[in-house]
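User: Please work through this fold.
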Amino acid sequence: MRAFFRLVAVTVMVFGIAGCTSIPYYAQSLEGHVTIMTARQDVAKLIENPSTSEELRKRMEDARAIRQFAIDELGLPDNRSYRSYVDIGRDAVTWAVFAAPELSLVPRTWCVPVYGCVPYRGYFSREKAVEFARELQGQGLDVYIGGVTAYSTLGWSSDPLLSTMFAQGETDLAAVVFHELAHQRVYTAGDSEFNEAFAVAVETTGVRRWLRAAGDTAGLRRYEADRKRRAEFIALVSRTREELARIYAGSGSVDEKRDAKAKVIDRLRARYRQVRDGRWRGFRGYDGWFDAPINNAKLAAVSVYSDQVDEFIRLFDLCSGDYTRFYASVQYLGRLDKAGRFDALQLANRCYDEPA
């Protein structure tokens, strides 16, 4: 499975200190970000440098073409982001810590300057992420740590390409770049579900358009097959969340709810194996996710990146596939209160780029 949280876009960053108890956390964010920024190499110079390896040169050429496509065809920001490169020498750039109560699917949130409240905390050190996770577990919370392959400063700095963004190939690189630039195009503080679903919609429609423009019909078939599997994975998780929500809202004792929770998670794994060995013909790309512990935090983390994606893609279609109109519509929705934007998105029957 491609790292699901390669799409975590806003690792809490650098722009302000919110209380003395947060100083160590902000310090590690600032240090990690500055370390990456000081190691940047210009993409154009890497391509021109005769000492650059052929493999790295090809990656940089691909990345430059993807970056230009994002500007020309998707209306994404034309700035210095993703015009430099850093080899960070590890599999993840940050680690996101998610938490939820033992008998609730509502994720814990942390409020920070610029970004509003988000359902995770990001760390440039895996050890620090594990340390924080253990602290949360000590409070009786379910905890999940997800490795992140890219993050965004929303245009506050010139975000570089990272070696982690190239791990899954050219199509995945395009997906990450389109996704992260979408956050720079429209961002609504304090609504991670809205922001992430919007960025996934830009990523999805953008990759389709990019593959079609390249005439890569085989690549497009692979991408659509991957999306179909991901949709089925999300459907499995959503069904489990619905079952757990009923249990948590019920009248059983704590012990009874714990026992029922364990059985529901066992059923989730069984359903996955049935899908994997049936419709997926043995595709095992999600085995790692299911083989590892599953809890409320892990289930909630999936929902942040998936629950409203179909609605955003429908809105994109209502805007006739015009990115300028689509972005204007999303900006309009972002100005509504959270409940209002959710309802407007769910009930949309027109593009919101102009007054009704």
User: Anything to note?
Assistant: Residues 95 and 123 are 5 Å apart (CA to CA). Residues 1-21 have pLDDT under 50 and may be disordered. The two ends are 43 Å apart (CA to CA). The first strand starts at residue 41 and ends at 42.
